[in-house]
Write a structure and sequence with these properties.
Elements: H1 3-15, H2 22-38, H3 50-62, H4 69-76, E1 81-85, H5 93-99, E2 104-109, H6 112-124, E3 130-134, H7 137-140, E4 150-156, H8 161-168, E5 172-183, H9 187-199, E6 202-211, E7 218-226, H10 240-243
Parallel strand pairs: 1-2, 1-4, 2-3, 4-5
Antiparallel strand pairs: 5-7, 6-7
Length: 252
């Protein structure tokens, strides 16, 4: 691990009030190295510059701590089940797992090749209670093994709020939390997604807005609590949530 990486990650962590052990720093660096090396032969991320990767991927994922004590408690428990929907190269799931090693993390994606890479990462970083899951979100949302079985669903920049809610809220237990990572300019998207959140059994509890450490990049975390079971007709068949986002009038 080079000094620039260590100093920049520690600076970002300090700004987020996170204390990182040497072991966690080493795992973050090894993960960064594996992503950038694999990126030479497979498209995992457009961000490969070290400083940019630290801010836009590592610090952005670590910013889950901004979500507060309730989320911290879920992630700190070995009895909690967390799923990262549309994990891609493993963000935020891998980074959150490094921060919270006790949590049971499921990394879900529709592209098997990405998950094969993440299996390598899981092995190389010795991440216990971490597994990959391949499929379509609409399908696992109907699968009895996964439907309404998670304590926390996280997702980062996968789709608009209406579509993303239909992918994610069916996976939550009643009383559990959906935590999407979004840009700072989220108001219009939240209004458009309000119908989907309500129809699927969720309620928007809080929007947490902040800047990424040392930048003017605005970000938002949305705390969506599931207060009733998702109607059995949701999620709809594969492709429908993105083509016909849920609205109060039409598409119900």
């Amino acid at each position: 691990m080079n000094n620039n990486f260590k100093d920049k990650v520690l600076s970002a962590a300090d700004a987020l009030n996170i204390s990182l052990t040497e072991e966690k720093l080493e795992k973050l660096y090894k993960y960064y190295s594996m992503v950038t090396e694999k990126n030479k032969v497979m498209n995992l991320t457009a961000v490969t510059d070290e400083d940019e990767f630290i801010i836009k991927h590592i610090a952005d994922s670590m910013a889950i701590v901004k979500a507060g004590n309730r989320i911290d408690k879920i992630l700190s428990s070995e009895n909690s089940k967390v799923i990262d929907v549309g994990t891609g190269a493993g963000m935020p799931g891998i980074i959150v797992k490094i921060l919270y090693p006790k949590t049971h993390m499921v990394l879900f994606d529709s592209l098997k090749k990405r998950l094969d890479f993440l299996d390598e990462v899981i092995g190389e970083l010795s991440l216990e209670n971490t597994e990959t899951l391949h499929g379509r979100a609409e399908d696992i949302g109907r699968d009895k093994r996964y439907r309404e079985s998670f304590d926390l669903v996280i997702s980062r920049a996968v789709a608009n709020m209406s579509t993303l809610s239909e992918y994610c809220i069916p996976l939550l237990k009643k009383g559990a939390v959906f935590l999407p990572f979004k840009s700072g300019d989220i108001d219009d998207e939240l209004k458009e997604g309000a119908a989907a959140i309500e129809l699927l059994g969720g309620v928007n509890r809080e929007v947490i807005r902040f800047d990424l450490p040392g930048t003017d990049i605005r970000r938002s975390l949305i705390i969506i609590e599931k207060n009733k079971n998702t109607p059995s007709k949701y999620p709809r068949k594969a492709g429908t949530p993105s083509k016909e986002p849920l609205r109060f009038k039409g598409g119900k």
